Amino acid sequence: MRYTFCVIHFVYLRMPVINPFPVTGYHGPAYFCNRQTETKRLHDNARNGVHSTLLSIRRMGKTGLLNHLFHKLNARRDMYCIYVDIYATLNQTDLLGQLSTAILQTFPPRKGIGKQVMEFITALRPVISYDNLTGKPEVSFHFAQTRQQEQSLGSLLRFLDGLDRPVLLAIDEFQQIATYPEKNTEALLRTLIQPLRNTRFVFSGSSKHVLMEMFSSNKRPFFGSAQLVELKQIPQADYAIFIRQHFASSRRKIDDPSLQFICEWTKLHTYYTQVLCNRLFADGHTKIDLGITQATCSQLLKEQEAHFFQYRNLLTAIQWQTLLAIAKEDKLYQPHARNFITKYRLGTPSNVKRSLEALLSKEMIYQDQDASGNYYRVYDCFLARWLERQ
Ligand SMILES: Nc1ncnc2c1ncn2[C@@H]1O[C@H](COP(=O)(O)OP(=O)(O)O)[C@@H](O)[C@H]1O
Ligand SMILES: [Mg+2]
Question: Residues with Cβ < 8 Å from 113, sequence gap 6 or more?
Fold first, then answer.
């Protein structure tokens, strides 16, 4: 007797799994690791009428943290939160335009307060256009005289200050104001901000040198006007738990050596840690060990190699040599020490000095400090890992 086996293939129409390690934007508290202390600090400051300066190197999580803070504050509905990114602004007129855009986008027009906001901004005689794709309003200004523009900025801030709830205004990439052709922006903002009663600011930025100088030098208008909140690496133990739990929620396992390797290899520079975890997750492994983790790291570097070679074309030979040397040292504390210069054949201390300046201005490296002193480090963690293999 012959049996015919009928094999039934079950086709599971599964929803696509959302990658729990996003690398852009903010996706809610579940996908946001830690930062409790910093969130609380900013929250407390906002509620107690204290301005904050939020500082870290790029891609450490300032914008994410501001989103996270807004998420919490918006749920309470006792404060208006406005976020404005001024990275693209070139002068005070742009700043006013960007700020007005952010305000219009925060308060949808037509209803209640939104109507009031729209009327107020329209009275400043801007050009309002609507983004083709998003339909969101964008505001720009053209002034014949600087005086008009300064007055408009002042009246806009006073208008916000008079709303029915306190306002938290987060200005991201605040160091940008130091590049404006107007030389009095700091003093102007300080004068306009000082009399406000209901508006709290977060000045956020990645140029430590520029912002520290702005807020900590007693010769500058903003001196002592905001509390410094510095964003460092998320503690390794917290990040490791976060990563393990997200893999576990998708019924996947990642072992401890892998977790340790991820944190160390990405130097806990948040964006790079997220990118690596995102890839490990995307690759669909159900059991991740050190071998898989290291192979994934190599793969990531390989994919970016063309990009890294491009950097080399943009630098002089000595700048490239210096960059390579910094990557190999990881943290370079003594750039002018004879043994460092000899070890990497960098010529003279003045060669090194010029290279460091060029690399800093191109944001290929950054300067920071820890318990052992000031150091230089390669900004892009993946580039650093690739360079150290050369
Ligand atoms: N606490 C966090 N947990 C998880 N991912 C984060 C966290 N903070 C930042 N990120 C992610 O890291 C990346 C860089 O963060 P971002 O806020 O843009 O840095 P910055 O504003 O300092 O340049 C973003 O992709 C963001 O999604
Ligand atoms: Mg940012």
Answer: 107, 163, 164
> Looking at ligand 1, which residue's alpha carbon is closest to its atom 23?
59
- Quickly name the fold that domain 315-390 has: Arc Repressor Mutant, subunit A (1.10.10)
Read off the pLDDT of residues 11-66 as tens digits, 9 standing for 90 and up. Answer: 334 444 489 999 999 999 999 999 999 999 999 999 999 999 999 999 999 999 99
Ligand 1 atom closest to the CA of 35, numbered from 1:
1
Measured from the Cα of 231, ligand 1's closest atom is: 22
CATH fourth-level superfamily of 35-230: P-loop containing nucleotide triphosphate hydrolases (3.40.50.300)
Counting every residue, how long is the chain?
390
Q: What ligand 1 atom has the least distance to the C-alpha of 60?
A: 22
Mean residue pLDDT of the chain comes to: 93
- Judge whether 97 and 141 are in contact, CB under 8 Å: yes
Cα–Cα distance measured from residue 153 to residue 329, given in angstroms and rounded to the nearest whole number: 47
Pocket of ligand 1 (CB under 6 A): 22-24, 32-35, 56, 58-64, 270-271, 274
Summarize pLDDT for 196-212 with one digit per residue, the tens.
Answer: 999 999 999 998 889 99
Residue range 59-82: average pLDDT?
96
